[in-house]
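INTERNAL AUDIT FORM
Audit reference: QA-55
Scope: verify that the stored structure record matches its stored sequence.
Auditor: D.O.
Record contents follow.
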Amino acid sequence: MQLHRLFSAFPAGLPGVGLLLLRVVVGATLVAHGSLCLLSSERMTFLLSVISAILLLSGACLLIGFLTPILSLLACLECFGIAFSWFPPPLMSSFDSKLALAPILAISAAIALLGPGAFSLDARLFGWKEIVIPPASRPPHD
């Protein structure tokens, strides 16, 4: 599978925990924002439903670390869209300040560049595999 080229490494230990924390912050923010949009909108349009569903889906996938490089770039686009008012007004309810989007933009860009870390579904699915070759049971014949 060619998807492993998206990931350079899956750091474990404290760097892996750091990447997990970054993913949780961005993922939880996107899930909360998408949920607020779905629950608080009196005039739900098709476009608003689609945008809210994309926010929820990308946030949930970032929380578990699935397709992290792609979905963290999508999170950047979502935040740009909210910051530059590309989306309908009800999406601005939880991010009234454009300054509140700056950390989410920066963190999602960092996640896209660094990868998901060892504590992710990506690491389980696409991480480096260890192949153990057992010792020969008989000595080779000359």
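Auditor finding: record pair retrieved intact. Residues 7-121 form one domain.
Action required: none
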